[in-house]
Design goal:
The complex is a heterodimer of chains A (343) and B (214). With 343 residues, chain A is of the alpha/beta class. Chain A contains 15 helices and 9 strands. In chain A, helix 9 packs parallel to helix 11 (213-223). The mean pLDDT of chain A is 96. In chain B, strand 1, helix 5 (104-115) and strand 2 (121-122) form a beta-alpha-beta unit. The mean pLDDT of chain B is 90. Helices cover 58% and strands 9% of the residues of chain B. Chain B has a 5-stranded parallel sheet with strand order 2-1-3-4-5. Chain B is of the alpha/beta class and 214 residues long. In chain B, helix 4 packs parallel to helix 5 (104-115). Chain B starts with a helix and ends with a helix. The chains are: A alpha/beta (343), B alpha/beta (214). Chains A and B meet through strand 3 and helix 8 of A and helix 4, helix 7 and helix 9 of B.
Amino acid sequence: MNSMERTLAAITHTEGDRVPLFLLLSLYGAKELQIPIREYFSNPGNVARAQRRMQAKYRNDVLYTFSYAPVEIEAWGGEVVFVDDGPPNSGEPFLRSIEDIEKLEVPEIADCPGLLRVLETTSILKAEVGSETPIVGVAISPFSLPVMQMGFEKYLELMIFHPTEFDRLMRINEEFCVAWANAQLEAGATAICYFDPLASPLMVERERYLATGHLVAKRTIARIKGPTATHLASGIGLPIVDDLIATGTAIIGFSADEDLDRMKAACRNRICLLGNLNALEMRGWSPSRAASEVKNLIAKAGAGGGLLLADNHGEIPFQVPEDVLLAVSDAVREFGGYPLALR
Amino acid sequence: MMDMSQWTDSFERTLLQIDRVQAKDLFADFHRQHDGFQALEVLTAATLERIGGKWEEGTVSLSQVYMSGVICEELIEDYLPRLSISRKNDPRLAIAVLLDHHALGKRIVTSIVRAGGYDLLDFGQGVEVDELVRLTLEHRVEILLISTLMLPSALRVREVREKLTAAGSRVKIVVGGAPFRLDGTLWESVGADADGKNASDILGTLEAMTAGGR
C-alpha cells in the first residue's frame, strides 16, 4: 500500500497494511534544512524540499503544508512575531475594540503573500507526489481565529455579551475560512485540518459551543470542498465527539489527556482518530520511551483502523530530538502492522 | 440558614452561569450573615478553587474560569472600600506574560489574586527577559508570577531565573500557562519555584510561600 491507500483505509475504518504515521512536521523543516525559521517559511521551495526530505527520513505518511497559525492573521493586516526556536506567534491583536468588527472586511487570498506561499508549496508537492501521499493543509476555524484577531479576553466578552457583533464576526470569518480552505484544495491539498481549539470543552463549555462554534463549524465544513480533520490542539474532545461528527468532519485530532479506551470506544467506526502523543513531553523522551508510547497507543486505538498516529497538538515542536521521531517511526512499523499482534 | 458548603455551591452555580447580577445579590446576602471581609475572601477563594479543580477535571471551561475570576474581582473591588480594607501588599507580587502577547492567563490569575485581597503589579505582556529582570529588581518583587503560551517562551524562564539570581534577587518564581500544564515537569526544569496547573492554585501557592513553604 502507498501512504494514500493506507490513510484511506484508516479513515474508512478498515485495517490497511499498518497504522499510518502522521508526523505533523511544520517548522521542524527549518531544522531539517538548518536555516532560520523566518527564512525557511519565506520560500515555498524550502518547505516543499524539507517536507519531502522528512517524508523519506521518517517514512512519514503525510505531507503537511501548515506554515504557522498567524499566517492567516497576516492576511487581515495583523502582526507576526518570529522567534528562533518556535512557531511564529501573532502579535498585538488588530481588532482593538468590538466596534472594529463593523468595519472588518474579508481579505482576498490573492492579496496575502504568506497564503500564496502556502499555496505554492502545496502545488509543488502535489506535482511531485500526485495521489500517492496525502497532502494536508490547515485552516483556522472561524470560531477560534478571533483569539488572534482580538485577544482571548475581548473575544470571550464578545461571545458571551455581544451576540450581534459575534455573529457578524463569525459570518466574515466563515467566508475567509471557506475561501482559504478551498484554495488549498484547489492547489492540491487532499484534506484540510480545521483547527478549532475553542471547540474543546476545556476552552468553551459544551452548551455555549453548541450555540456558537458548533453552528459555525456545520456551516463552514459543509462548504469546504474536501475532507476535514477537526483538531482541538491538545484540548479534550471526548464529551463532544457526537457533536463533532454532526459537523461532517471525518477526523478528530485528540488530546494526550484523553482516556484512550473511552475515546476509541466513542469513535470506533464513526470518526477517525488523529493523535495523541504528547508533543511537549516528546522533548524529553528517550527512544525507548517513544517506542513504548507508540505501542500503547496502537494497542488501545489501532484495532479496526480509524487511527492516524500523530502528536496531540498538530505540530511537532522544534525541540523534539530527531532520534525520538525516528524511534516513533520504527515503533509504528514494529507494532502497527495489521492484523495487530497487540490486541 | 445555609452552611458554608451550601453558600459555596450556590456561588459556584451563579459564577458558572456567568450571572453578574445574581452573584452580586448572593454576595450581599452572604455578607449580611457573615461579618467581616475575611468571610468574603474565604467564600471567593473556596469557590474559585473548586472551579479551578473542575477545569482540571475537564468539567468546566476556561471561559467559565475566566468570567468567574472577573466577577469575583469586581465583587471584592466593591467591598474593599466599603469595609475600609486595604489590599495586602506583603509579599510584593508582580505578574507578566513573558514574550507572548496572549494575556488571558495573566488576566485570570490577576483576577483571582485580587479577589483574594492581594495587590499585585502588572508588568504587561510581550515582556522581554531583560525587561522582566529589570522590573523585578526595580520593584523589589518577592514573588513573580510568569505566564507563557508558547514553549520557547516557557523555556526562557530559565534565563529570567539565572539573571535574577546573578543580580542577588531571592524572588520566588511561579509559572503557569499551557506549556507547563501539558508537560508536568517543565516548571522544575526551568528553575521555577512552583507552577499552577490551574489559575486558582495561586492563592494556595501564595499562602504556602508566605508561610515559608516551598
